[in-house]
Amino acid sequence: MSESVILNVTGMKCGGCEANVTGKLGELDGVISAKASSQGQTVQVDFNPEKISLAIIKDAIADAGYTVVSV
Q: How far apart are CA 38 and CA 36, in angstroms?
């Protein structure tokens, strides 16, 4: 079973930022897919809630240098 969430994220300016966020999230066990949009300032994440929590996903985005402003 998977869940999907779209997070509003500030600080992404370009394709490199998108790649940084998706790469960090792709390293996490339980993240099925991630798609970042610097233009829309969003990150869509499909994940298995039995393996990973939304809090860990948000922390990974913060660790990459960006701010999650809402769910």
A: 6
Provide the CA 9 distance to its chain's centre, in angstroms. 8
CATH number of the CATH domain containing 51? 3.30.70.100
Tokens 């998977």, located at residue: 2
Going along 1-71, which residue ranges are E strands? Answer: 3-10, 31-37, 42-47, 67-70
- Domain of 21? 3-70
Count of residues making up the chain: 71
pLDDT one-digit tens code per residue, 20-63: 999 999 999 999 999 999 999 999 999 999 999 999 999 999 99
Residue whose structure tokens are 């240098």: 65
Beta bridge partners of 33: 46
